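Ops channel
N.P.: pipeline sanity check, posting one input/output pair.
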């Protein structure tokens, strides 16, 4: 299939050192750029390095760039492919749960600038996504946990049956059940794909995917938490706000908290609300003196609710 998009000599792969070391056979005989792993390399200077390598390897307008990796690599590959020669073709092969269910769907890509995540980037849909589940055999458990924060997020905002299915399963069981995981991933891809295809530019419905992320991004930066941990704590905070503002029940909150714990995600953090507030008000979701917050009406039904900054500040103080 790839060969119908570009000649074999014009296909360039990007991956990171961990993936290359664990799966060298996947890249044999391919033109390859191997980057150091980790979010701290998701920055403009890494994109510039990739561009220099592409020039050296004589990539031209008919070339195809294929990102094989977690969210960092798929975001970088998408970004570079959208700016190199004003845009070349791109394919993504996600290798983490998080990238499979979230990062590689929807066309958002980009790099971080200092503490600001994804501040610079473009929206460009890849020509293809390829799911090769054999990569998951080497994925460390902590990365499975990270990915499940996004899966639980999807269940909360859109799919009560998925929430129940997760309650009846466990991480240990899923890690050793490739068929179950494949069907779970497929269901999550459908949830995200349905939302982003109806609202590619995030004017409305796509905002639901930020559930747990507004507070999550702030504490991820301040306390250097893994993304999934920060989102998990952010979802509990948003569920508590939902109890006050959108009729979410105490039993819903308890169910969400138990499910997150079941998937080994944290639900509490003693935070410095002043510091959190300073980062929150810089958030992309703020407009004037309101913030569009994602709340739950019930499990399986997320809603977008504008909250005044004064009210939000008071509510957050009560949460701690
Ligand atoms: P994300 O969590 O956004 O998907 P990364 O791209 O940083 O983030 O991937 C998380 C970590 O997992 C990185 O250290 C990466 O090298 C590693 N990794 C990605 N895919 C695999 C895999 N299939 N097996 C082992 N390690 C992997
Ligand atoms: Zn996320």
């Amino acid at each position: 299939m790839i060969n119908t998009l570009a000649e074999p000599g014009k296909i360039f792969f990007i991956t990171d050192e961990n993936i290359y070391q664990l799966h060298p056979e996947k890249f044999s005989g391919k033109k390859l750029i191997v980057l150091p792993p980790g979010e701290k390399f998701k920055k403009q200077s890494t994109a510039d390095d990739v561009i220099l390598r592409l020039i050296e390897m004589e990539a031209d307008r008919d070339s195809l760039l294929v990102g094989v990796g977690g969210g960092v690599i798929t975001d970088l590959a998408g970004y570079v492919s959208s700016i190199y020669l004003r845009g070349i073709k791109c394919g993504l092969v996600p290798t983490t749960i998080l990238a499979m269910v979230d990062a590689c769907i929807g066309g958002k890509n980009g790099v971080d600038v200092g503490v600001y995540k994804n501040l610079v980037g473009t929206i460009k849909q890849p020509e293809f996504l390829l799911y090769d589940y054999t990569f998951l055999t080497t994925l460390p458990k902590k990365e499975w946990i990270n990915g499940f924060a996004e899966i639980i997020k999807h269940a909360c905002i859109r799919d009560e049956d998925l929430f129940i299915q997760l309650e009846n399963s466990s991480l240990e069981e899923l890690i050793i059940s490739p068929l179950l995981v494949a069907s779970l991933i497929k269901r999550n891809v459908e949830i995200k794909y349905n939302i982003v295809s109806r609202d590619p530019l995030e004017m409305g419905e796509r905002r639901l995917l930020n559930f747990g992320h507004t507070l999550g991004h702030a504490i991820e930066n301040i306390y250097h938490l893994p993304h999934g941990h920060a989102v998990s704590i952010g979802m509990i905070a948003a569920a508590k706000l939902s109890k006050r503002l959108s009729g979410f029940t105490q039993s819903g909150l308890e169910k969400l908290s138990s499910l997150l714990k079941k998937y080994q995600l944290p639900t509490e953090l003693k935070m410095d609300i002043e510091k959190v507030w300073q980062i929150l008000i810089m958030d992309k979701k703020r407009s004037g003196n309101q913030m569009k917050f994602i709340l739950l009406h019930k499990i399986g039904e997320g809603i977008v609710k504008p909250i005044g900054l004064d009210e939000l500040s008071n509510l957050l103080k009560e949460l701690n």
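N.P.: looks fine end to end. The two ends are 53 Å apart (CA to CA).
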